[in-house]
Predict the structure.
Amino acid sequence: MGTPERLDLCKPCAAEKSRQGVRLKTVSGRTEKITCAACGRRRFGRTYEAVNAEEKEDPKP
Ligand SMILES: [Zn+2]
C-alpha cells in the first residue's frame, strides 16, 4: 500500500517483470539512459511504477 514503487528498468527486465505478474505503469514517456533496478546495468530504459496487482512470493525455480 502507499506510494507505488518507482523502478528504472531496461526493456528486457521490464518484460521479465510483467511476465512475472508485476504490473508496470510507465512514468516517463521517453527512453533514457538509466541504471536498471533489476540487473544493475547502465542501459536504455524507462522509469516505471510497479503496481502490485497481486501479492506474490518470488517465483523461484
Ligand atoms: Zn535490466
